[in-house]
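Weekly structure sync, notes
Attendees: PL, DS, HV (note-taker this week)

Item 1: BioF2-like acetyltransferase domain-containing protein
DS walked through the input record. Source organism listed as Shewanella mangrovisoli. Sequence as pasted into the shared doc:
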Amino acid sequence: MDANTLTNDIYFQDEYAKLYLNEDDRIYRFEYTKGEQWFRSLSIMRPIPNYLYPNYSETLFDLETPYGYGGPITNSQDIDFINEAMQLYRADCVAKNIVCEFIRFHPHNQLAAHANLFDFHLQERRVVSVNLRTEQHERWQGYSKTTRNIIRKCEKKLTFDENIHLDEFINIYQQTMDKNNADRFFYFPKKYFEKLHTHKNCQLLGIRAFDGELLSAGFFFLSGPLAHYHLSANNLERQHENGNYYLLEQAFVLAKAAGCKSMLLGGGRTSSENDSLFQFKAKFSKDILPFYIAGLDFNSVQRKQLNDSWQVNHSDTKIQRFQKYRMSPKDI
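Item 1 (cont.): predicted structure, written out as tokens:
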């Protein structure tokens, strides 16, 4: 996917990033152009708690990709231009007292493969992409026989609902997060779901049993050539009815009708090849993409001091994180 198309993806839009702003946060944008070449970045800029650096008078900040995907992006293949842009980017961050940045790269962002540009770089996991250019019967050829049979049975027993009530979703979402012992980050406040629900490119879709009970539901971004499977939840007492299979199948049909060419399903809960969520998603496509995370140090000494300060207060915890100081006890 070319960079100009990718910049129109939902994850590179201010409207999406605003969903994750806390009271003192703001959106940080950087852009550098030279002729027809451009380099752009969108991040969330957050103040760092000052108790972590009590002997420093100025406020420090860090950057983070909004939840999902993003990262700096360019339409150029010229490494000299890219290096020049990165140097200017680093200088701008230093001038703004930004210590470091944590990046979650979009799987279609070609800059993600340039490990040498970053101070930390890792393929964190793999994600599943579903091709929507083909007709449904062709897409089904990539499914296992078991998956096809499950969907056929669902077609006879379940119904697709495009008008799920938000409170219904939140109820089963909370149950799903509890079951999975999810990170505290994923326990979004109701206000977040309300904003997500009213986003112009987001749809809350669900599957119901014939008795009307909600079995599975999820938020999907359907805009432009690339669709996304964002957040989902399942009725834990009725998982055997396989509403999650039928939800994805119906979302594919809806996204294709909306003009989307592919849908990113994301990866698993962990980086393990045996992760059950990844294995479920991989039943729908063999198109697997790498998902990279990366870090930029604008003041490596300061970041080390922040991490060391955090470690002093968590001496029993040994963990490797780029922004360790951002961890709370619930993250450990």
